[in-house]
Amino acid sequence: VALETRALIAWMEKMPFVLGGNLQGGELVVTFPYDRTRSQGVTREQTPTPDEHVFRWLAFSYASTHRLMTDANRRVCHTEDFAKEDGTINGASWHTAAGSMNDFSYLHTNCFELSMYVGCDKFPHESELPEEWENNRESLLVFMEQVHRGIKGVVRDLQGRGISNATISVEGIGHDIRTAADGDYWRLLNPGEYRVTARAEGYSLVTKKCEVGYAIGATRCDFTIGRSNLFRIREIMEKYNKQPIRLPVRQFQAHRPRERRLGT
Q1: Around Cβ 37, how many Cβ atoms within 10 Å?
Q2: Which residue, 20, 109, 139, 243, has fewest beta-carbon neighbours within 10 Å?
Q3: For 39, which DSSP code?
Q4: In what residue span(s) does the Peptidase M14 domain sit (predicted)?
Q5: CB under 8 Å to 16, separation ≥6 — which residues?
Q6: Which residues of 123-153 are buried (b: 16+ CB within 10 A; e: fewer)?
Q7: Which of 155, 156, 148, 154 is closest to 212 using CA atoms?
Q8: DSSP strand E in 13-127: where?
Q9: 18-34 b/e with 16+ CB inside 10 Å = b?
Q10: What is the pTM of this model?
Q11: Please, which residues have CB within 8 angstroms of residue 86's CB and are 6 or more apart in sequence?
């Protein structure tokens, strides 16, 4: 792994990023993960993440506000007309790429990342840069605003202290995120009602309903979780230097009690 790649990985592990985008050239399209096909040897295959609907919205928020991406009258960059697909595409269904930034961010951090191909010319001339900026300025602003969509909150213990590395799960979506150092979290979601569960090692899990609206602004959804019974027992035993009681395992045969007839 290259040094700059290691540095970037360390940076992403340190900072709790929520939304990311990497800018590229040579096309006019926004791609979203997964970027690698599941089937070996297949170069193009629709490979969605559990957050497919969220990624599609994020991609569309950029493409639809770009000056050219969704313009049906623009010229095609090369051979594929991505304007027919609203200027967005699943990365693996375009061409498979192992170890992409988008896939790493989604699988190993809390960050949802996409790739923006912002122009047909991969190496535009200096004189063309002002126009390229105008083509993408509004898209960049709208895309950044999407970081405020979904739910956010803090996971605390009964004493009000934030719990780091707690897991936030959304029912029906097989992708969890984790809380930051102070117990705070941010979870991108499309509008709707969700059952969200917070859990942490040594604590009892808590589930609640969180509703996401259409207006920009993440819904506050905090959790307070207490120590589990098993953890409290272990804590007490460690405090008083007690050893667990080990009872021999015995097999018991259950006997059905005889029925007694009551007379009158």
Answers
A1: 21
A2: 243
A3: S
A4: 1-147
A5: 110, 180, 184, 186
A6: eeeeeeeeebeebbeebbeebeebbebbbbb
A7: 148
A8: 19-24, 27-32, 88-90, 112-119
A9: bbbbeeebebbbbbbbb
A10: 0.85
A11: 60, 63, 64, 70
Task: Report which secondary-structure segment, H or E, holds 92.
Answer: helix 91-94
The closest alpha carbon to 168, from 153, 178, 154, belongs to 178
- Per-residue pLDDT tens digits for 72-115: 888 899 988 998 889 999 999 999 999 999 999 999 999 999 99
Please provide the DSSP assignment of 185-230 as one string.
Answer: EEE---SEEEEEEEE-TTB--EEEEEEE-SSSSPEE--EE--B-HH
Q: Is 27 helix (H, G, I), strand (E, B) or coil?
A: strand
68 within 8 A of 28, measured Cβ to Cβ:
yes
Q: Whole-angstrom Cα distance, residue 235 to residue 215?
A: 45
Average model confidence (pLDDT) across the chain: 90
Residue with tokens 């006997």: 255
